[in-house]
Specification:
With 514 residues, the chain is an alpha/beta fold. It has 20 helices and 19 strands. The protein is globular and about 80 Å long. The two termini are 43 Å apart.
Length: 514
């Protein structure tokens, strides 16, 4: 790995690149989380076996649909499935046998080797919000997203200490034609950040563009041998795998690039209202989707996902941060670990229209369940608002700040000599205080996690400074971060190659807005 990283650095321009790196503004990024705390396991062995048996029954007796994809049906036939029209009945045990070739962990490489992430095992990688067509800020309110908003969110993600990944569609830039916007989004991730990023999945040809642009950025040989992209492949629950999503999956699997195979579940609408019933359906869908990725290419990296929320039975609106969502997220974590796969779920979910108390409560519940359920890749970790319809500037930095608590919680409790603190207890004794003791002086800089956003000043100071609430503080932080932003160094020839590819692709097709 060190030899590969050294080779990639050499592509960056040698001495001139190193001089540019020395003069660039540096932003600290924490390493991906490595858990030193146990996962919360909500299901006993009997419950796990019941759900696993039922999921296999669903695959064998009910089956799953692979629609508008004759190639997929042919692969399933060859593997031994019973294919009736577009319905695939998978014999008990076949899906589990197929997924055994998927890696338990894998590295996603970033163009800056210091930002590489390890996905799987005891690790947790945090990525920002994905997919909203709208954005919101305190000054402009709610509006359709533009490419300028997209670039701003990439910059904020790059500068956020606790965020490990640049993500994918951090908002949907509606001022760019649908068939071309993926090119601008990829270019932004590749040039405005040096963190890992996600590829496009909205059409197989756009996935192919993602692979080609990655080869310009990293070098063709490197991409052929390593995973440099993750992609989000949603299953159309219940139990339907459409040709567009599967077509994108096929592109990435053939190129040895990672895919998140993720059911999209709104309990009561796309799955049963009961937790065990939803867990059964999620497991069946994951088994079929991951197995198909291995039919395309055995050994292709894949992440088993679960996007799960409940529904308000009065309005029909999705709800977030609920106990039922936590039950399902914990349960899926156990089931996925038994499959030996990396796990994607959770995020900073909320249904609120503003970054207010509702948003804070719901997001905190959702983030903590992700940490405790053993999630390895957390999409939507910051910026999500209004049930995923909105990317919020203020909430992005509020969430990104609070991700630091996950890092600190995951460290667990140190019980080495320094952690025991016996020297401090002896030095201070009864009736004293610990503020000036030697142990405190040696540890005060790292003893407690510190927010970069919240206000802990006395009331009088807070009032004199304008009595700003958290949303106001977050708005100021957004403006400061964007003003301070400096792009990470990128060799000019690579930049020109990327920009040239984008220009040629755009010129080769007419605009399409649907």
């Amino acid at each position: 790995m060190n030899d590969i990283a050294a080779g990639r650095r050499a592509r960056g321009g040698g001495g001139s690149a190193r001089r540019a790196e020395r003069t660039a503004v540096s932003f600290e990024t924490a390493k991906f989380i490595q858990r030193n705390i146990p996962n919360f396991e909500i299901l006993n062995e009997e419950a796990l076996q019941i759900i696993e048996w039922n999921a296999e029954t669903v695959l064998e007796e009910i089956g799953v649909n692979f629609v508008e994809n004759e190639g997929a049906l042919a692969l399933w036939r060859a593997a031994g499935a019973d294919v009736q029209g577009e319905r695939v009945h998978i014999p008990r045990g076949l899906a589990r046998k197929l997924i055994s070739t998927a890696p338990k962990t894998f590295t996603q490489y970033a163009r800056n080797p210091e930002r590489n992430v390890e996905i799987g095992g005891r690790n947790l990688v945090l990525a920002p919000v994905y997919g909203p067509p709208f954005v919101h800020d305190a000054k402009g309110g709610r509006r359709y997203a533009t490419i300028e908003d997209f670039r701003n969110f990439v910059k904020l993600g790059y500068m956020s200490k606790w965020l490990h990944h640049s993500g994918g569609t951090v908002c949907e830039p509606t001022d760019i034609p649908v068939n071309k916007r993926h090119l601008d989004m990829l270019l932004a991730h590749m040039t405005l950040s040096d963190k890992p990023f996600m590829g496009s999945v909205t059409e197989p040809s756009r996935a192919a563009d993602s692979v080609e642009m990655a080869k310009i950025l990293f070098g063709s040989d490197f991409v052929d041998q390593n995973t440099v992209m993750t992609s989000l492949i949603n299953i159309n629950s219940p139990m339907t795998f459409d040709g567009i999503m599967m077509g994108a999956l096929e592109v990435y699997a053939k190129a040895n690039q990672a895919a998140i195979v993720s059911p999209f579940i709104v309990g009561g609408a796309m799955a049963p209202v009961t937790v065990a019933g939803t867990l059964t359906q999620v497991l069946a869908e994951v088994l079929a989707g991951v197995a198909y990725s291995q039919l395309v290419r055995a050994g292709a990296p894949v992440i088993a996902g679960a996007f799960v929320t409940s529904i308000d039975m009065n309005s029909g609106a999705p709800t977030f941060g609920t106990p039922e969502a936590s039950h399902i997220t914990y349960g899926v974590g156990q089931l996925v670990r038994r499959l030996g796969l990396p796990y994607r779920s959770a995020g900073g979910f909320c249904g609120s229209k503003l970054p207010d108390a509702q948003a804070g409560y719901e997001s905190a519940n959702s983030l903590n369940m992700g940490l405790l359920s053993g999630v390895n890749f957390m999409l939507h970790a910051c910026g999500w608002m209004e049930g995923g319809l909105v990317s919020s500037y203020e909430k992005f930095v509020m969430d990104a700040d609070q991700l630091g608590t996950l890092h600190h919680l995951a460290q667990g409790i140190a019980v080495d000599e320094n952690g025991q603190g016996m020297d401090a207890i002896r030095e201070v004794g009864p009736g004293g205080h610990f503020l000036g003791c030697e142990h405190t002086q040696a540890n005060f800089k790292t003893a407690f996690w510190r927010t970069d956003l919240f206000d802990y000043k006395p009331y009088e100071t807070w009032a004199e400074e304008g009595a700003r609430d958290t949303m106001a503080l977050a708005g100021e932080r957004v403006q400061k971060m964007l003003a301070d932003y400096q792009a990470p160094h990128l060799d000019e020839s690579i930049r020109e190659g990327l920009e040239g590819y984008v220009a040629r692709k755009k010129e080769s097709m007419p605009d399409a807005f649907l």
